[in-house]
Amino acid sequence: RIGDMFSSDQVCTGAVKQRVEEPVAPEEEDDVLPPGIRLVLISDTHNLHGSVDLPDGDVLLHGGDFSTLGDLEDVKGFTDWFAAQDQYQERVFIAGNHDMTLDTKFYVDRGAARFHPNQTEKSPEDYSKECRKHLKNKNFTYLEDSAKTFSIKSSSGSDKGRGRSSGRQTS
Question: d(Cα 26, Cα 160) in Å, to the nearest integer?
Answer without folding.
Answer: 19
